[in-house]
Amino acid sequence: MGQPTGYMENSVSYSAIEDVQLLSWENAPKYCLQLTIPGGTVLLQAANSYLRDQWFHSLQWKKKIYKYKKVLSNPSRWEVVLKEIRTLVDMALTSPLQDDSINQAPLEIVSKLLSENTNLTTQEHENIIVAIAPLLENNHPPPDLCEFFCKHCRERPRSMVVIEVFTPVVQRILKHNMDFGKCPRLRLFTQEYILALNELNAGMEVVKKFIQSMHGPTGHCPHPRVLPNLVAVCLAAIYSCYEEFINSRDNSPSLKEIRNGCQQPCDRKPTLPLRLLHPSPDLVSQEATLSEARHKSVVVASSEIHVEVERTSTAKPALTASAGNDSEPNLIDCLMVSPACSTMSIELGPQADRTLGCYVEILKLLSDYDDWRPSLLEVTNVTEAACGSPVVSPPVRQVHSCLLSVRAGKDGWFQLYSPGGVACDDDGELFASMVHILMGSCYKTKKFLLSLAENKLGPCMLLALRGNQTMVEILCLMLEYNIIDNNDTQLQIISTLESTDVGKRMYEQLCDRQRELKELQRKGGPTRLTLPSKSTDADLARLLSSGSFGNLENLSLAFTNVTSACAEHLIKLPSLKQLNLWSTQFGDAGLRLLSEHLTMLQVLNLCETPVTDAGLLALSSMKSLCSLNMNSTKLSADTYEDLKAKLPNLKEVDVRYTEAW
After folding, report:
1. For residue 617, what is the domain's CATH number?
2. What is the DSSP string of 168-236?
3. I need a labelling partner for 270 at 20 to 30 A (CA). Which of 140, 195, 350, 475 fits?
């Protein structure tokens, strides 16, 4: 079985250990344990008495755990099972071992017991929950136990167990949980617990007291994880109310479809962009102004939820608001929507309606705390700009910090939702709203305009080119306050303004005040021009048609969405010498057209474009080319040799990551 010293040849299972003793006679080896097993004994010698005692208690613990697993795996009488569970809990609480598994192991045994015995009575459920309650004071319940607790909250929301046992458990989860993504059932349990509180006679008053207990009596909550955890629970619960509808519109199978077999693609409805509006029983007339809608608070009391579906219609937006409540609007009340939308209704079931009402009200409660209100902007996608009105009342400095920077060195919502930002999915509509709110409060200053000019001038010009009035105003202010020093950039801004009716009108008003701006355009337009990223062929056409560009020598369309279709506008630029098409969709057809007309072009950047030999061969007629970038194109070695032979002035060539490299 073993050997005098060293490692054992064969392992000994814990279930095979019949007894464990400390060797205590006078001449016994120091720091040894004696394990009695079938067929003999094994001596284990530790380095010191502390380690020996740890081994002793660990082996005793393992033996008892195996015993309880065996006893509880085949329950016969539940009064005996309950007694064994209580003994198991006492053993865990009195063990001298300091390890998380000491308390988690009994919880997992009980969790498995409950999952394998679903026919227990309600009283038996409650007795088991009360028995394991002491272990839950300092430990999160395992996933299966969370599911059991969820079921109890749904079926017995008025049970005293919910208040007396679950409350400290949920409080611990909210104070100490670091990531619901790793333990989603903790979030579901917290969600069901709060709904159970809402089912009590006092309803939201009980929920309100619970939120107060989580915040604490002072003006500042001492637990930094409480707010983000509460918001995560609220948003997940609100999302669950619309989950079936959202799954039906995004062409991905819902959980129900996965269970029943996913429907065919032809059965799905076309996708529509959607935003949720306030729950409200009635609509304000189309003539209602935004300011009127701002002063109405929402009462979530109807199962009809109004939702915005974006369309290309030019109809006035229909706003949703509630009547009969003139209190100051709340952050969550004022989730406003953008123009050019129509509304539709989603009928929610009674349970989803109660869930929605409960958790929207909780978000309102959270925004009532002064220390939580600014952070609430950071942990949700709800900003002052998204709300359509300045509905929060912290110091403006705090709102500015939340909107522009989540944390040092990281992009804020302002950067993320700008055109080209990772979160921008609405063509910059929300970004423009943010700028409008900031400019309309205390940020109509030269410093803010300077920041925009340095970091977001491209997105501002792109949105102004598309007729956004806020951005037109921003560009006019930049000219009026002399924010832009570069003459070419000033001329590009002027051309952008004159490309739309609203821009032309506001620019004319500006020129009435500053006549010298007109003189810039009379000189033949800018010599350099850079289009903002994400610009399209239509944006370029609109810009070039807005004024004179006879002096334009350098044009950069890098990282825009232009295609070969824009070539018909580029060939109308007689002075063009440098053209940057890096990372665009400009192809062979456009290249052939350019080679016929722009014979004076000197610098051409085609890096990461879809051009092939068919288009590149046409460049042989552009004898003035001295710099040509064909990096990461489908250039072949033969075509490269041909171009070198036919372009005598070519001095700088980049053919990396091509066949010719």
Report:
1. 3.80.10.10
2. HHHHHHHHH---TTT-HHHHHHHHHHHHHHHTSTTTHHHHHHHHHHHH-SSSS-S-TTHHHHHHHHHHH
3. 350
